[in-house]
């Protein structure tokens, strides 16, 4: 039996214990489940390097996406990159995009995924002095503003989401 005590700074020193119990023919915790848990628990802890690279990618990606929209002749649409999360090995990045008006969000996301290699190349050209290898970028729609707007509408209206939480849509996890 091996016992680990894991705690993150800022969690008011909450302690969490994970027991790995192995016997010859019987495993009580499957290795992959424990690995998934550990990765999900510590993923929110970004290193300074990850934050810097995420910031550089966020700034340049917003610039590139706005320029591509302008070149395509699409007017009246605003794209902002709300967050870029980079994995610890710096090989994968997740870019969260806020698209206004939101009725064009799915359509714009499909167009972005079609020209993903062109965007990656242009981003690599801009960051060639800062990054050795360009991470593979996945694009997701950031729905946090819509979620907040729904909460505000519900609070201002007759329906109270605090007393009836079923009124609000569940957020999509990406």
Structural overview:
The protein has five helices and five strands, in the order ββααββααβα. It has a three-stranded mixed beta sheet with strand order 3-4-5. The N terminus is likely disordered.
Residue fraction in strands: 15-25%
The helicity comes to: 40-55%
Sheet/helix structural class: alpha+beta
Output the radius of gyration.
21 Å
CA(first)-CA(last) distance: 34 Å
Low-confidence stretches: 1-27
How many alpha or pi helices?
5
What sort of overall outline do the alpha carbons produce when their principal axes are compared?
globular
Walk across the major sheet and give the strand order: 3-4-5
Run of helices and strands: EEHHEEHHEH
Mean pLDDT rating: 77
Mind summarizing the main beta sheet?
Answer: 3 strands, mixed
| Number of E strands | 5
Provide key terms for this protein:
alpha+beta; two-stranded antiparallel ribbon; 174 residues; three-stranded mixed β-sheet
Question: Short summary of the structure?
Answer:
By secondary structure, the protein is an alpha+beta fold.
Write the layout of secondary structure elements.
Blueprint lengths: L1 E5 L9 E5 L10 H12 L5 H25 L5 E9 L5 E9 L4 H10 L1 H11 L9 E6 L2 H13 L18
């Amino acid at each position: 039996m091996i016992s680990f005590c894991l705690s993150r700074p800022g969690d008011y020193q909450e302690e969490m214990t994970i027991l790995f119990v192995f016997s010859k023919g019987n495993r009580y915790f499957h290795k992959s489940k424990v690995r998934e848990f550990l990765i999900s628990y510590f993923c929110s802890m970004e290193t300074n390097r990850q934050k810097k690279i995420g910031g550089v990618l966020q700034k340049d990606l917003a610039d590139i996406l706005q320029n591509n929209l302008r070149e395509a002749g699409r007017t009246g649409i605003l794209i902002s990159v709300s967050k870029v999360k980079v994995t610890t090995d710096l090989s994968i990045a997740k870019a969260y995009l806020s698209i206004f008006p939101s009725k064009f969000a799915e359509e714009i996301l499909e167009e972005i995924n079609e020209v993903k290699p062109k965007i990656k190349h242009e981003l690599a050209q801009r960051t060639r002095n800062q990054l050795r290898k360009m991470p593979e970028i996945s694009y997701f729609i950031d729905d946090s503003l819509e979620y907040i707007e729904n909460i505000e509408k519900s609070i201002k209206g007759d329906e109270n989401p605090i007393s009836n939480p079923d009124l609000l849509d569940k957020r999509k996890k990406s």
